[in-house]
């Protein structure tokens, strides 16, 4: 009898799950059976790259969006090769300083998967299954995945690549508002967005990239009405600009000790850079490869301090808008069609069939009111797994196979991405990659981080299975 063929189940087939499958196909020496499960059938695209609107562009330059860490030009070459069929790639310069549509990137990832399956030939089988995984049981002989349709599937290893979850409803949102049919709890719920009329007034919770996305989406649908966006600090993402490469200024082996020293060091570098005519963006980009090391080097108190005080500033400088989108947002603000407000929501209710908010302005002074026909919640993905209401998450927590990380940024994981259970022990056979690893690495939501994670993890798994 031949050796048993290892079965690997990947739950979620967005960029993370797909790249894990691709890397496993490249690295597994012998036969294997890989099954990709995706509840939306978004193989290769996931939530981020399923956008149909061509004006939804990547918020990362083409040069940093290759599927392969060791081949930075891979996406650029694909764009050039596919220029005639995809459109929009003609202007991509060799530097890769360009922002193509997210749909184009989704098509690229689909192609990368197709090519990896073809290259692997009959050795490895890849199945793509449209199914919602709702539970996992671990036994000494293997794992068993329960699917929403009642079926179950056996696997030797399970990787959770479940991506981001919709935002939590902020506490001051009254049940009457949340259940009014005019509160869009999930900004990616296209059917809800379809109901907004072109002259309605829209209130948005959040002023980050998701809010920007929503505005772009509404305009593409012919929306003409006023938009009010509110967040605690009212900060908008900064715009990308063409920058010069900046020399590394932090030494991985001798990183500044503690958050205060680190912040001072970065501020000093930004000042020095400015005095030499260089932009702060270049300094931020130079830190990029070290961000995970910097996070790991911080103790838990400093991580909490960072989340409480610095995160909003980090987010708007790190996660930037494509320049053309930034210009559009500026134009809408200048025309008074988009207003941003800084403050905390104090109360909410329904008045005359419309939604009313009051908020306490950050600058102080009396409470202010906003009235609209719709509220779209763009407060950022819910990361606290204890509050996520998906059957798979609830069952993993209830059975003790998983627990949230101490800062409620994702799942608690070992450095090799194995889940840690309720009792603090690694859960055999079960792993998570991509956004759920935020607590471990902080930055693990963008393509450059995820592609590296998938390559490293699959090399380890392939060695283990060999
Ligand atoms: C709108 C948006 C734009 C972005 N733009 C960029 C960008 O320009 N550049 C960049 O680097 N990063 C960007 N990101 C970050 C993005 O998170 C990563 O690039 C990457 O797409 C994450 O992929 P993922 O597969 O982990 O998650 P997702 O794309 O969220 O995919 C997860 C998939 O898992 C499926 N799933 C979840 N639970 C289950 C289950 N129980 N059973 C079956 N299937 C399940 C979901 O249906 C989904 O298809 C963006 C994110 C968003 C939301």
What do these coordinates show?
The chain has helices at 15-27, 74-81, 83-86, 102-120, 175-178, 190-194, 209-220, 258-275, 280-287, 291-297, 300-318, 323-334, 391-398, 438-441, 447-465; strands at 7-11, 32-38, 124-130, 133-139, 142-147, 152-155, 157-160, 183-184, 202-205, 227-231, 338-351, 354-361, 368-372, 374-377, 418-420, 426-432. With 466 residues, the chain is an alpha/beta fold. The chain folds into three domains: 7-165 and 383-465, FAD/NAD(P)-binding domain (3-Layer(bba) Sandwich); 175-238 and 321-377, 3-Layer(bba) Sandwich (FAD/NAD(P)-binding domain); 258-318, no CATH class. It has a seven-stranded mixed sheet with strand order 8-14-9-10-11-12-13. It has a six-stranded mixed sheet with strand order 3-2-1-7-16-15, covered by helices on one side. It has a three-stranded antiparallel sheet with strand order 4-5-6. The model has no long low-confidence stretch (mean pLDDT 93). Residues 11-12, 14-17, 37-40, 42, 46-48, 58-60, 132-133, 161-164, 213, 392, 434-435, 445-447, 450 line the site of flavin-adenine dinucleotide.
Rg to the nearest angstrom? 23 Å
- Helix run count: 15
Using the coordinates above, name the CATH class of the largest domain.
Answer: Alpha Beta
Mean pLDDT value? 93
Q: Tally of extended strands?
A: 16
Summarize the structure.
Helix content is 34%, strand content 20%. The chain is of the alpha/beta class. The chain folds into 3 domains: 7-165 and 383-465, FAD/NAD(P)-binding domain (3-Layer(bba) Sandwich), CATH 3.50.50; 175-238 and 321-377, 3-Layer(bba) Sandwich (FAD/NAD(P)-binding domain), CATH 3.50.50.60; 258-318, no CATH class.
């Amino acid at each position: 009898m031949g050796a048993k063929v290892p079965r690997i189940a990947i739950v979620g087939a967005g960029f993370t799950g797909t790249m894990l499958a691709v890397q496993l196909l490249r690295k597994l020496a012998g036969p294997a059976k890989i099954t990709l499960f995706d509840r939306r059938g978004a193989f290769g695209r996931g939530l981020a790259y399923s956008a149909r609107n061509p004006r939804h562009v990547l918020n990362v330059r083409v040069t940093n969006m290759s599927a392969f860490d060791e081949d930075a030009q891979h996406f650029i070459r694909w764009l050039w090769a596919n220029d005639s069929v995809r459109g929009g790639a003609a202007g991509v310069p060799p530097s890769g300083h360009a922002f193509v549509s997210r749909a184009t990137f989704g098509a690229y990832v689909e192609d990368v998967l197709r090519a990896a399956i073809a290259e692997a030939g009959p050795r490895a089988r890849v199945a793509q299954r449209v199914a919602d995984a709702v539970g996992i049981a671990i036994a000494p002989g293997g794992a068993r995945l329960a699917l929403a349709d009642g079926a179950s599937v056996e696997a030797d290893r399970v990787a959770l690549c479940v991506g981001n979850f919709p935002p939590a409803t902020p506490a001051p949102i009254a049940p009457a508002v949340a259940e009014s049919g005019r509160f869009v709890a999930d900004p990616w719920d296209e059917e809800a967005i379809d109901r907004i009329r072109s002259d309605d007034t829209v209130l948005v919770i959040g002023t980050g990239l998701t809010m920007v996305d929503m505005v772009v989406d509404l305009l593409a649908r012919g929306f003409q009405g006023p938009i009010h966006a509110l967040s605690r600090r009212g900060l908008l993402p900064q715009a990308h600009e063409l920058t010069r490469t900046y020399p590394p200024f932090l030494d991985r082996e001798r990183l500044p000790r503690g958050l205060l020293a680190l912040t001072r060091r970065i501020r000093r570098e930004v000042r020095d850079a400015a005095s030499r005519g260089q932009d702060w963006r270049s300094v931020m980009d130079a830190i990029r490869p070290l961000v995970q090391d910097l996070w790991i080097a911080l103790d838990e108190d400093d991580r909490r301090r960072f989340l409480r005080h610095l995160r909003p500033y980090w987010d708007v400088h790190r996660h930037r808008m494509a320049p053309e989108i930034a210009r559009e947002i500026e134009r809408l603000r200048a025309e008074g069609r988009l207003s941003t407000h800084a403050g905390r929501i104090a109360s909410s209710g329904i008045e005359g069939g419309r939604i009313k908010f009051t908020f306490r302005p950050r600058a102080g002074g009396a409470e202010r009111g906003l009235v609209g026909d719709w509220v779209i919640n763009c407060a950022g993905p819910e990361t606290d797994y204890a509050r996520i209401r998906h059957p798979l998450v609830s069952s993993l927590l209830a059975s003790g196979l998983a627990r949230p990380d101490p800062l409620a940024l994702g799942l608690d994981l070992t450095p090799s991405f194995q889940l840690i259970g309720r009792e603090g022990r690694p859960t055999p056979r079960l792993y998570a990659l991509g956004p759920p690893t935020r607590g471990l690495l902080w930055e693990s939501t963008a393509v450059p981080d995820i592609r590296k994670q998938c390559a490293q993890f699959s090399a380890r798994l392939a060695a283990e299975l060999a």
